[in-house]
Amino acid sequence: MKKLFLLFVITFVSTITMAQKTNMTPERLIQLGRVGGKGISTNNDQIIFGVSKYSFTTQKKTNTQYTVAINGGEVKKITKKEMNLSDKAISPNGEYIIKVKDQKLKNISGSDFHPDVKDSNVLIYDELNYRHWDTWEDGNYSHIMYQSNTDKKGKLIDIMNGEPFHSPQKPFGGSEDYLWSPDSKSILYVTKKATGTAYAISTNTDIVQYDLTTGKTTNLTKYNKGYDISPAFSSKGNLAWLQMKRDGYESDKNDIIVRVNGKDINLTKDWDGTVNSFNWSNDGKKIYFVAPVLGTVQILK
Q1: CATH topology (fold) of 5-12+88-291
Q2: pTM (two decimals)
């Protein structure tokens, strides 16, 4: 097998002392522009970001989009129509698009049981899990769906139809929880296929593959009992993801796993640090990852 090189980025915290002529107040803080990344342009040469500002006068928020070359240069203001972002929800062949929608699968609220009492604020639970952090379970489950990207009125297909499981995961899951296979024939998604108390005490998420032609689902990480998250394909078609080994342990060591020719390779097995996130290089020969501590990584052959 060809050499697979692994590089990493080290994160660190530093304290910066700044001389200020004026004191920071709640009003000044609210009026500061808030910068948020939007993504990379489809031609991979521009970074697109947005700046939001709040106005005390109008009591409204404004959002402005900008672009700047990846190698640096002039920052230019653009419209939403000019953003030209890569969209991972669209299949590589452009035929399909992924949508995420909630499906009501369980009766929880008082009005679910008594439709004539629409103002009821009662929630009825007979088992865990009843809340994710500050969000109560309401019987809705986030599901991955897809439809034609050219016929917006085409049928929306729920690939998790009837399953009382979430994808993206609650409470923090997002677009990193799903992706298309390079050949556009299947969708990979992260989910925890457990309910009740088993769901509440487990961290055993899996990466599941759904075949568009057959409708068959395959658990790609069934052997592992801890977290399996953030799947990503390289330009060469190799799948990588983050993995923790132990179930029920949210702070376990996070490793990078790569599947090559059907074999799973733990790239960071012999490294003491834990991985926060990673990205493939454009040529599919390297993986760059973010980690909180300095360490060394063995080059695999």
Answers
A1: Neuraminidase (2.120.10)
A2: 0.80
